[in-house]
Sequence to fold (121 residues):
Amino acid sequence: MTHEQYKFKFNPSACEECGGHCCRGESGYIWTKYTEIEQIAKFLDMSIDDFASNYLKKVKHRYSLIEKQLGVDDFACIFFDETKKGCTIYPVRPLQCKTFPFWEQFKDNENEVRKECIGII
Fold:
């Protein structure tokens, strides 16, 4: 998989071996937009209000999925399944998740993205 603005390529088949490294690590934000919130709530057969009260945190004017702590400095998206090492909402995951590893912060920093993802080629 390639992206015209990035020098590196991504092999999505590496995800099966990875164990969900991109879904866990230091605490951060998993940004989600309202249309994504609607899709995830529908996927989970929940009302938007119930979904928001259980799975979202507001950060200024934006929303992030909450995290769960797995260990010291080890956090994961609330929808990361530690047993299966994957996303339980994969078909409706947020754009931030869909676009990994082609994030702006990695555009000119291939060494950094290689630390995050074994699928970089």
